[in-house]
């Protein structure tokens, strides 16, 4: 464990900025509650995944270069409330700039400072219990890039387990993809929808009243599916449930 | 051939298919993890197996020549085939030379790849598949949809109907009974065939050994009862030594079906030279390229290390939703999406590399740790670089590159697009987008086909953050 940092940079991700600002505010509130100063580099846009997953190398590099240059000019750990964006930056950026000897060291220096939100709480700050309380039945969706990309498995679960009155539901094939897949969701809606419907059915069978994840991409996709069905199940970023009941 | 999306549309609501796939893949997945977790040093063995496979690919030409020499030393007749049609010709010539009438086959993906059965039947040969799954495929005039379990797309009830119809046996959905019907039919065939054709799971360079793994014993019969045995194998099937073969055998069946070993592991060293020998009089090995060398020279060369266990299919959410046939060719699932464009050309198969959510599940289970997602991504890049793509997509992505690298422009675009989206929304949601040609929402139409679209928040996170900072000052 490194020394507890005083201040972090928040890379809030485009989905939080555009669609789920309240999830970003929960991240800020929790970090401040833990006595950490939060700074938000205002020039940030998107890590580049939509172009990357579609095969547009040049366009991805533009977004990636911008992100690295922006973050290079800041100091301290960089906290990212998304497994997928963390995976993109920490695993794909070095491949993207392979052979670019001038820029690659800068990329690697930024990567060393990057943490997914729950990884930062548990592995860096050593926090697994915030003293939150929430009376809810929660289906936790371990997103693919978080689990299999960044290798974060236990951190979110231990944080959820320590929320008072919260029940984590058990559902089938929990660690399977929800069918989002970034641009895949719109390019192959039938397949994406079929995977999603199965996931929603399993979640419903678990009698959960909300789906919690560390990735707003998956949740935006699931929320869209739940809304179309007229379901009352809500989606929440893990920070939003961790913040519940904090003073 | 129909397009990928047309094939998907045909199966996406096929409930029977979904039931069959989810039953079988769940079983295969749980057997796989149970049996791998009981293997000591599994991670190390997987690493070593990967290295052995990649070493072969690194000097494939040398290994092939050495392998050929060992085969010849063992009395095997070696043939080289550049294309699938060349391999079919070679088989036909051997059959004609020996006046063969009936050919027995054990399960082989490579013969499916080159449509060997069709070619043989056209010349008047009687071809019988002896693997139970492939036998049912043949009876139903269907195609296999999985590397390991060819009729994974059929329920047992369906199999019962097929057997009832084609073999004139009473209908049943009882698996042991169905297997017995097939066995009774196949026994007759085994006793009067004069040529056996198999694939190869591995070819061992150091000894010139062909290794076959099967579960039903049919592989043994096909390679011993007829007087001629033809092995058809892709160039990439080599392993350097018997010790390497041991590594492969430790992980292949475990990854495929969850068995420690398949029921039969057959090692073939050539024709019999004694009167009491059970080996055939002639053994032929056909080494097939059929596009493999072009994969070898590409960014996806690693895919040639695939040992065809099928584990990546069983964990793939896309495969489980659409089954094997929708992939359009013999190799389905994540590996099929790399192998098929590699063997047959990207232009015709450019939908396949996009048929993945990039969930990394394939990567996790691959016994030789092939980086399947990375290969899919590199194919996507190649498609965007070299193939024809819609102008709208190209312009959209160009715009993405410019907007995401210019924060001020990004903020302006956010304002414009969220204003537009809020105008066409109701209660914060959009159920479908207007399809006027001048409205650039082509991409989002796909989204609303199966789910509602939530419009951007009135205030962005950064707006909220800035306000909060001001109020704290």
What does this structure look like?
- The complex is a heterodimer of chains A (247) and B (473).
- Chain A is α/β, with parallel strands linked by helices and 247 residues long.
- Chain A folds into 2 domains: 7-124, no CATH class; 133-242, 3-Layer(aba) Sandwich (Rossmann fold), CATH 3.40.50.
- Chain A has helices at residues 14-18, 21-33, 49-54, 57-72, 83-96, 104-112, 117-124, 144-150, 154-161, 184-187, 189-205, 216-229, 238-242; strands at 7-10, 37-39, 78-80, 114-116, 133-141, 164-168, 210-213, 234-237.
- A 4-stranded parallel β-sheet of chain A has the order 2-1-3-4, sandwiched between helices.
- In chain A, helix 5 (83-96) crosses helix 8 (144-150).
- The two termini of chain A are 27 Å apart.
- Chain B has helices spanning 4-11, 15-37, 42-58, 60-73, 84-97, 109-113, 116-122, 132-140, 156-167, 175-191, 218-224, 242-256, 292-296, 311-315, 317-322, 333-344, 361-365, 372-386, 391-404, 407-423, 442-450, 461-472; strands spanning 77-81, 102-105, 126-129, 195-198, 202-204, 209-214, 228-234, 238-239, 264-268, 282-288, 429-430, 453-454.
- In chain B, strand 5 (202-204) and strand 6 form a beta hairpin.
- Chain B has 473 residues and is of the alpha/beta class.
- Chain B is elongated and about 95 Å long.
- The longest helix of chain B is centred in the N-terminal third of the chain and has 23 residues, at 15-37.
- At the A-B interface, helix 1, helix 2, helix 3, helix 4 and helix 8 of A face helix 1, helix 15, helix 17, helix 18 and helix 19 of B.
């Amino acid at each position: 464990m490194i020394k507890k940092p005083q201040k972090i940079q928040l890379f809030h991700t485009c989905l939080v900025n555009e669609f789920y600002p309240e999830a970003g505010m929960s991240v800020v509130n929790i970090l401040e509650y833990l006595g950490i100063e939060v700074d938000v580099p205002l020039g940030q846009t998107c890590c580049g995944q939509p172009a990357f997953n579609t095969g547009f190398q040049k366009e991805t590099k533009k977004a990636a270069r911008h992100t690295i240059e922006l973050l290079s000019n800041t100091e301290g750990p960089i906290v990212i409330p998304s497994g997928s964006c963390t995976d993109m930056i920490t695993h794909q950026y070095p491949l993207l700039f392979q052979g670019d000897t001038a820029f690659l060291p800068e990329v690697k220096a930024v990567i060393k400072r990057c943490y997914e939100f729950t990884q930062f709480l548990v592995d860096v700050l050593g926090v697994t219990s915030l003293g939150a309380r929430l009376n809810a039945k929660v289906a936790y969706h371990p997103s693919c890039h978080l689990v299999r990309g960044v290798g974060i498995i236990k951190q979110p679960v231990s944080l959820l387990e320590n929320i008072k009155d919260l029940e984590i539901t058990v559902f089938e094939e929990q660690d399977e993809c929800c069918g989002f897949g970034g641009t895949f969701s719109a390019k192959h809606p039938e397949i994406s929808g079929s995977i999603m419907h199965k996931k929603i059915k399993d979640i419903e069978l678990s009698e959960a009243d909300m789906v919690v994840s560390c990735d707003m991409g998956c949740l935006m996709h699931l929320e869209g599916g739940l809304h179309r069905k007229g379901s009352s199940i809500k989606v929440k970023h893990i920070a939003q449930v961790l913040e519940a009941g904090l003073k | 051939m129909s397009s990928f999306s047309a094939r998907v549309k045909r199966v996406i609501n096929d409930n029977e298919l979904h039931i069959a796939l989810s039953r079988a893949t769940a079983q295969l997945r749980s057997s796989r993890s149970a049996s791998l977790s009981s293997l000591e040093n599994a991670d190390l063995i997987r690493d070593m197996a990967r290295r052995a496979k990649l070493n072969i690919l690194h000097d494939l030409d040398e290994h092939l020549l050495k392998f050929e020499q060992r085969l010849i030393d063992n009395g095997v007749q070696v043939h080289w085939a550049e294309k699938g049609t060349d391999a079919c010709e070679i088989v036909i010539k051997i059959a004609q030379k020996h006046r063969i009438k009936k050919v027995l086959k054990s399960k082989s993906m490579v013969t499916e790849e080159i449509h060997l059965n069709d070619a043989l039947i056209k010349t008047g040969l009687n071809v019988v598949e002896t693997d139970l799954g492939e036998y049912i495929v043949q009876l139903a005039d269907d195609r296999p949809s999985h590397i390991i379990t060819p009729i994974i797309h059929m329920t047992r009830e369906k199999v019962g109907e097929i057997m009832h119809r084609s073999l004139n046996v009473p209908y049943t959905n009882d698996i042991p009974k169905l297997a017995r019907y097939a066995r009774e039919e196949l026994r007759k065939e085994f006793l009067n065939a004069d040529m056996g054709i198999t694939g190869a799971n591995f070819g061992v360079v150091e000894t010139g050994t062909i290794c076959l793994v099967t579960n039903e014993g049919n592989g043994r019969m096909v390679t011993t009862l007829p007087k001629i045995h033809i092995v058809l194998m892709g160039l990439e099937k080599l392993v350097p030594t018997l010790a390497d073969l041991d590594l492969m055998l430790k992980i292949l069946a475990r990854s495929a079906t969850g068995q420690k070993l398949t029921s039969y592991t057959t090692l073939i060293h050539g024709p019999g030279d004694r009167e009491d020998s059970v080996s055939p009089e002639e053994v032929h090995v056909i080494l097939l390229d059929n596009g493999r060398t072009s994969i070898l020279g590409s960014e996806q060369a690693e895919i040639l290390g695939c040992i065809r266990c099928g584990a990546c299919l069983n964990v793939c959410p896309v495969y489980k939703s659409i089954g094997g046939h929708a992939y359009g060719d013999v190799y389905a699932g994540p590996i099929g999406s790399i192998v098929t464009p590699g063997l047959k050309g990207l232009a015709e198969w450019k939908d396949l590399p996009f048929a993945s959510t990039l969930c990394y599940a394939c990567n996790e289970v691959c016994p030789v740790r092939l980086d399947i997602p990375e290969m899919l991504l590199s194919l996507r890049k190649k498609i965007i670089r070299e193939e024809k793509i819609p102008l709208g997509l190209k312009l959209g992505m160009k715009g993405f590159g410019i907007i995401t690298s210019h924060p001020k422009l990004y903020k302006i675009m956010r304002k414009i697009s969220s204003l537009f989206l809020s105008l066409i929304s109701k209660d914060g949601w959009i159920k479908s987008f207007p399809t006027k040609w001048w409205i650039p929402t082509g991409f989002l139409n796909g989204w609303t086909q199966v789910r509602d679209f939530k419009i951007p928040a009135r205030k962005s996170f950064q707006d909220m953050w800035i306000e909060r900072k001001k109020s704290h000052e």
